[in-house]
Amino acid sequence: MSKLPRVTGEQAVKAFARVGFTVDRIKGAHYILKREAGGVRLTIPVHKAKTIGSGLLHSLIAAAGLTNEEFRELL
Question: Of the candidates 4, 70, 63, 72, which has an alpha carbon nearest to the alpha carbon of residue 34?
Fold first, then answer.
């Protein structure tokens, strides 16, 4: 398993947008993204310049149906 870079919530939202996710709504500091194909929803915390934890990032990548290498290329 390859290591993932540390990314902020904003960077993650932009990366997932490149594969078809759009911002459905924002509730507080959490962006809820959705993709029509498959009805997948992701909730990403976007806190000022804080990075996303590695466990959460792995879960988001798996839920989106991506591999770590594919996500790294999206950044």
Answer: 63
Cα angle for residues 23, 66, 3 (degrees, 5° grid): 110
3 in a structural domain: no
**What digits encode the pLDDT tens for the residues 24-67?**
999 999 999 999 877 899 999 999 889 999 999 999 999 999 99
Calpha distance 27→67 (Å, rounded): 27
Angstrom distance (rounded) from CA 31 to CA 52: 13
Whether 4 is in a domain gets the answer no
Half-sphere exposure of residue 21, counting CA atoms within 13 Å on the CB side?
A: 24
**Is residue 44 within 8 Å of 23, Cβ to Cβ?**
no
Q: What is the pTM of this model?
A: 0.89
Domain-embedded: residue 17: yes
